[in-house]
Design a protein that fits this description.
Length: about 260
């Protein structure tokens, strides 16, 4: 029986979709297992945005393109090649089942393609990738799911753009969704259609130039919202993104 928490997590990491874990630890799958931040440039981006709306019509494609390029360049300057950690809160909703669940923990990211999501509530489990291998460890169940990260997170799918910010420009069509005095939101539409994710919305703080929120949407109206806090850019030990399988743990291959 598919576990609700696993299904919800798939909406953000779409690369893990269609996995079904049964009580006797058998796995089936339906199809392929594929499955910000303004760098200040000598003046406030907010006032840059305001000036653009003064000199350009709101309907002006030129004005929109200038703002969008400024946003993308700022994101790349802030995140390219850097490592960071953040607390996160996850709120996920499965529309068909009318189920909403909340989880929280600490996440680490390092360029290129390295991620660690350590869930502390409601139950402890860890999702780790070094950019090559992927591990999902549930200590309470004495279970590890193991697979090839390149197949699960290729083309910047899911949250992998957080560990390689260049994938945003490369793999998504970007539109400005909303601009306020407090934040900017951009909408990412995958250039290559994905059956399990329709769009990603990123909210970027005007105050401190940090990604505050990431929301994913899929074609079934499911949503997964991540809010980030206590973001710290710093060097992270590469061992954080490695995993040594404990002796006696049940191993499930995801390939």
């Amino acid at each position: 029986m598919l576990k609700t928490n696993e299904k919800i997590f798939e909406n953000f990491f779409d690369s893990l979709y269609n996995l079904k874990v049964t009580r006797n630890l058998k796995v089936t799958r339906k199809g392929d297992q594929l499955k910000s931040i303004f760098h200040r440039t000598g003046f406030s981006l907010f006032y840059f945005i305001v000036s653009c709306f003064v000199f350009f019509s709101p309907a002006s494609a030129l004005g929109s393109d200038i703002i969008k390029e400024e946003i993308l360049t700022a994101i790349e300057n802030k995140y390219s090649g850097k490592s960071f950690e953040a607390n996160f809160t996850q709120i996920s909703r499965l529309a068909a089942l009318d189920i909403t669940e909340k989880a929280s923990g600490r996440a680490s990211f390092s360029h290129p393609g390295k991620m660690r999501w350590e869930y502390m509530k409601p139950e402890h489990h860890v999702i780790i990738t070094n950019g090559k291998s992927l591990w999902i460890f549930r200590p309470e169940e004495n279970q590890i799911m193991q697979g090839d990260a390149s197949q699960f997170f290729k083309s910047g799918a899911g949250g992998s753009f957080l560990s390689d910010i260049s994938l945003i420009r490369k793999n998504y069509t970007i539109n400005i969704k909303e601009i306020t005095a407090d934040y900017v939101e951009i909408d990412l539409i995958a250039k290559i259609k994905n059956a399990n994710i329709s769009s990603i919305v990123i909210r970027i703080s005007q105050k401190n130039s940090e990604i505050e929120r990431v929301v994913t949407y899929n074609p079934y109206d499911d949503t997964t919202l991540f809010e980030f806090s206590d973001i710290q850019f710093k060097k992270i030990n590469p061992d954080v993104f490695e995993f040594k399988v404990p002796y006696g743990v049940n191993i499930i291959k995801m390939d």
